From TrEMBL, chains A, B:
This is Uncharacterized protein. GO terms for cellular component: cytosol. Keywords: Oxidoreductase. Residues 190-390 form the Fe-containing alcohol dehydrogenase-like C-terminal domain. One of its GO terms (molecular function) is methylglyoxal reductase (NADPH) (acetol producing) activity. CDD domains: BDH. It comes from [Bacteroides] pectinophilus ATCC 43243. The lineage of its organism: Bacteria, Bacillati, Bacillota, Clostridia, Eubacteriales. PROSITE patterns: ADH_IRON_2 (PS00060). PANTHER family: ALCOHOL DEHYDROGENASE YQHD. SUPFAM superfamilies: Dehydroquinate synthase-like (SSF56796). The keyword rRNA-binding does not apply.
Length: 391, 391
């Protein structure tokens, strides 16, 4: 089952401007690309916490056009709206001010701008992404890592589809990461974001390649940072160290670093969760918190137990009992307990989700996520079992 | 003494092409910049192991000019020679094929090309670096991290000076990192390179900033990789996993990642070792192996003991005895023992170095390294004591 470290290309090109007051650099950064800016943002939190006013005050010398109302699980109709603005006003650069949803939406806009057909086409088939407008991100939530990577996940509610697409050209040119900008993130969203960060590590950590020692130590460090700092940020939302470590964890978990040399297999929990979000529009991180421990138990077997044991030992610093299986179960239990401790749901019932869509969700997850190629390959029946365990 | 995480910019832009057979990409990579290539290399090992022939066979469509004979502790006269070739043949891109010395020399050439005065000026004063020719590296030794960073260290034997300079424009555009290309590195050079990698982590790990949790976990992971894989690579030079992890450790230890948010203080051991190399032309990593444990003991005090304890606990997995000082000493002893175990010298006498130059080396280290601003500030007397302890 184990294979050697794969060849890889690591090229995380985003200029990460991290820390208090970095927003002051925004005019200089945007000025590299032009004067016509499309500013994309969400449901108005940046107006309540002053970030909107701050950004606007810095952009006197720019022509700023706005696209607001980007929702969690950002939708293709919002992408289409953004493309129209870009074309009407000859936008030079897309400025995303928000979390992962806003940045993902901005990426799709920036890519669809150069595509003649419908924007949904480039989500379904990234070979249609030929060029992309420059993207700059001002990050206001630690979760998806979109600020430093090539990925975008877009939902199509009419079709009950939530699909990930990617392009190297989607990588933001620069990001402003001020931990203070996340002080206003709610306890629930802080927890959900943390579950997302942790899942990004899991998706790369639980793979068949051996010899990826450094990547695995890095991944464990990110998980440990989540375990340590998420409760602290929930306890005191203005704990700078906690917010800073969660923010940096977000970027480090999914900028390619943890996955270097581990490229051969599909992800597991994300595709399953994407179906939940597509059908029920639930919070991505909450869905992951439910699915992850059940997935871990489902794939635990003689071949995978050693990797889970390593996880248990290195992340939770549990003394080795000598029994791989027992050690694995301790780690899975601790993972599940952590999600409960930070207030995330552990069953679908808590979110009012029943078993009526399980078959179609399982089927779609296997197809969209190419789960036959996952760390432990999953077919429709496997995913159904995992989802039923989540009820 | 402790301060908060500093603001930082992280922008490691090198396209890292890692793994077996990546050399095949070389023509495509170089072709981005032009047809006139200056190929810089060292003392001929690449001719013996076939890398030279392989590179040449791939570059039929290019005009390749050669600068060979770059020595360890690369010298300013070699830089001047390279600049002449670049000007005479309108070089478009500098291709470094070698280890840190070759890449550092290439950086200085690429920067001095655009400077009208003597090349040494840009080493002494990096504000004179205005533009830099594109640099591409084919890495053949794991050590300095130069393949993914902005630094170059150049020696001026006439002046007994070994000086580090840096520019964001020095960062190689792309690197080819094939672990098999390091199979021929001798046991001694493998060990010395490992000591260099470890020192790069130490220089960032032992700093006063608190709250840099992720960076510290990453640093510990790199040190652990060195402890695990250096002996394996010495035992079996063709152990792919061992060579791959050391190579990736090299790049990760000094691409800015471990130092994110820890920018406020000078390095300690590198400036001291640079004086040893400047006066006695010794192998950098060997000098570091001698200086590092003595420096650690010299700066161990009530304020620093806790950080050393953390190092001991997280890297060597020693059960906490409860006594910070005792724990610190265990970690320092283990570090010193590791360097001995991999065959590196632990005293200057072993290299035939006596106390005759200690005063001038100490003085120069304090000035060139701005050691008054180190983690534990060091004056001439401190460095003299450290160097005397090394005798």
């Amino acid at each position: 089952m184990e294979v050697s470290m794969q060849n890889f290309v690591f090229n995380a090109t985003t200029e990460m401007n991290f820390g208090r007051g970095q927003i002051e650099k925004l005019p200089k950064i945007l000025g590299r690309y032009g004067r016509n800016v499309l500013m994309v943002y969400g449901m108005g939190s940046i107006k309540r916490n002053g970030i909107y006013d701050k950004v606007m005050s810095l952009l006197d010398d720019f022509n700023v056009y706005e696209l607001d109302g980007v929702t969690p699980n950002p939708r293709i109709d919002k992408v289409r709206e953004g493309v129209m603005i870009c074309r009407n006003y000859h936008i030079d650069v897309v400025l995303a001010v928000g979390g992962g949803s806003t940045i993902d939406c901005s990426k799709a806009i920036a890519g669809a701008y150069y595509y003649d057909g419908d924007a949904w086409d480039i989500v379904m088939d990234n070979s249609r992404i030929t060029d992309v407008l420059p993207i700059v991100a001002v990050l206001t939530a630690a979760a998806t890592g979109s600020e430093m990577n090539k990925n975008a996940v877009i939902s199509n509610p009419e079709r009950h589809e939530k699909i990930g697409t990617s392009s190297l050209k989607f990588i933001p040119r620069a990001a402003i990461c001020d931990p203070e900008y996340t002080y206003g993130v709610s306890k629930f969203q802080t927890a959900a974001g943390t579950a997302d960060i942790m899942s990004h590590v899991f998706e790369n950590y639980f793979k068949s390649e051996k010899g990826t020692y450094i990547q695995d130590r890095f991944g464990e460090g990110i998980i440990e940072a989540c375990l340590k700092y998420c409760p602290r940020a929930m306890e005191d939302p203005c704990d700078y160290d906690a917010r800073a470590n969660l923010m940096w964890a977000s970027s480090m978990a999914l900028n390619g670093l943890i996955g270097c040399g581990k490229g051969s297999q599909s992800w597991s929990c994300h595709p399953i969760e994407h179906e939940l979000s597509a059908f029920y529009d639930i919070t991505h991180g909450a869905g992951l918190a439910i699915v992850t421990p059940k997935w871990m138990r489902h794939i635990l077997n003689e071949k995978t137990a050693r990797r889970f044991k390593k996880y248990t030992r290195n992340v939770f610093h549990v003394q080795d009992t000598g029994d791989d299986y027992e050690m694995a179960e301790i780690g899975i239990d601790k993972t599940e307990q952590f999600f409960k401790d930070i207030g995330l749901p552990s069953t679908l019932s808590e979110l009012g989700i029943d078993d009526s869509k399980i078959q179609v969700m399982a089927h779609n997850a296997v197809i969209h996520g190419r789960l036959d190629n996952a760390y432990v390959p999953l077919d429709d029946m496997d995913v159904e079992k995992i989802l039923r365990a989540c009820l």
